[in-house]
Amino acid sequence: MQIDKLRGEQLDQLFDAILSLKDKEECYRFFDDIATMSEVHALSQRLQVAKMLTEGHTYNNIEKETKASTATISRVRRCINYGSDGYEMVLERLDTEKE
Length: 99
Hints:
globular; TrpR-like protein YerC/YecD; YecD_YerC; TrpR-like_sf; Trp_repress
């Protein structure tokens, strides 16, 4: 995992902080303080790209709907194919919650 290079007390503290959030409103408040609008947008955009890729959408359709660059779409595709299965795990859980 690439993130292993950052593993340590600071990253643990960030993840513990995120895990302590109780609802969406708390998420909005925390992410408003900790990240820029561009950073939050980029993260949410990547998740939407991952969702659309796993649903079989084309790059053109994803680019049009999400406004993501083809470089971002390719990077997300690479993570889906060769990454740590984080997108798959989260998307499956979101699908399960909808049911």
